[in-house]
Amino acid sequence: MESSNFNSSLLHFLQSSPTPFHATQSMKNRLLSSGFVELHEDHNWVIEEGGRYFVSRNGSSLIAFTTPSLDFFNTGWRMIGAHTDSPCFKLKPNAQVTRHGHHQLGVEVYGGVLLHTWLDRDLSIAGRVTFKTVTGDIKSRLIDFKKAIATIPNLAIHLNRGVNSDGFAVNAQEEILPILCDATNEFELKHVIQRQLEKEHSDIYVDLILDFELSMYDAQPPALVGLHDEYLCSARLDNLLSCFVGMEALIASNDERPSLLICTDHEEVGSLSTCGANGPFLEDVLRRLSPNPEHYVQAIQNSMLISADNAHALHPNYASKHDKLHAPTINQGAVIKVNNNQRYATNSETAAIYKDIAAQEGCNVQTFVVRSDMACGSTIGPITSGEIGVPTLDIGLPTFGMHSIRETAGSKDAYELYKVLARFTKRTNLIAK
């Protein structure tokens, strides 16, 4: 795949994946079209040599893997990890609010949202709806309004004179309720949801909306930006960018080594869930593939995980926020993330493996270490390595504005990471014992 085609497919993936449910469905569609077979956790599995498979949990997390050999305890796995969720606003169960002539939506902040970036944006709604059909069945389906249907207007500077000098703190309870329509129009949220559900799924006859998991999202499409298209600007780059890169690397693996992609939900809120990295999903899958306890431990110790999650690029307007010797630049290659307090799981051996592979591909490598006087974020890397004991590298693509409604990465970096990860899936030797 060429760089321009890669970025075009990436933009389409981002646009079609406004929620973790939609991202998982997008990955399912891509994997099915590439010859992967869907497995179901409540069925018996028949895994064959030379197979390509995937399984999902909760509709928002996915594990895909290839089995060129079934001798996992000798070959180990080449694993790539990412997460499907992004900071956002999620509708509360009783979301319908009417105030001062406007119908609004009560929302809950999910993850570490950069709140002010959501003001004055064109917002839409997507997610999962659970309902009872006219025949009495309970089902769930995805919906996506796609068009802009809401906004959160800023307060005029005339009513907030000190905003540019004193800063602007946004109250999450009172000041981020999206405005949906004016109160002269009749509005019942569940009726709106039901109409959208029946519009998108013509075979569904809904009797009653029972519940929903719906998120607000930026309706502006992703785009290449810059005089020479140097930048990729989009919502949810953290971390759908890594999901896409990892998926394409797995598809391109040519089945030379057993390889596995894990994309889990709820990383932005700690990963502790049935489908999160701090839950049992990955271990459940690996133990089904290596049911012998001795072989399972051997397989893990012959494996390596690359946890791919975005890294903080050196912002030219805020250069002092970086350690000047560990300040990665956009479009200069992926970033190895190091933290000796184990906020990242990188060690010298896993970093060395990545550097060696990158050199073979002619790709640049950068390093990020947070300033010693600042707190460090974390990823699924330490969680997964702590859960199953797999040697792990934390890496990411340099990004501006992480956790903003619209983030910025380099248009060259994703394709370079894809090339390195694709070679990683074929890697025979790790660290010599």
TrEMBL record:
<dbReference type="GO" id="GO:0008237">
    <property type="term" value="F:metallopeptidase activity"/>
</dbReference>
<keyword id="KW-0862">Zinc</keyword>
<dbReference type="GO" id="GO:0004177">
    <property type="term" value="F:aminopeptidase activity"/>
</dbReference>
<keyword id="KW-0031">Aminopeptidase</keyword>
<keyword id="KW-0378">Hydrolase</keyword>
<comment type="similarity">
    <text>Belongs to the peptidase M18 family.</text>
</comment>
<keyword id="KW-0482">Metalloprotease</keyword>
<dbReference type="GO" id="GO:0008270">
    <property type="term" value="F:zinc ion binding"/>
</dbReference>
<dbReference type="InterPro" id="IPR001948">
    <property type="entry name" value="Peptidase_M18"/>
</dbReference>
<dbReference type="GO" id="GO:0005737">
    <property type="term" value="C:cytoplasm"/>
</dbReference>
<keyword id="KW-0479">Metal-binding</keyword>
<keyword id="KW-0645">Protease</keyword>
<dbReference type="GO" id="GO:0006508">
    <property type="term" value="P:proteolysis"/>
</dbReference>
<dbReference type="Pfam" id="PF02127">
    <property type="entry name" value="Peptidase_M18"/>
</dbReference>
<protein>
    <recommendedName>
        <fullName>M18 family aminopeptidase</fullName>
        <ecNumber>3.4.11.-</ecNumber>
    </recommendedName>
</protein>
<dbReference type="InterPro" id="IPR023358">
    <property type="entry name" value="Peptidase_M18_dom2"/>
</dbReference>
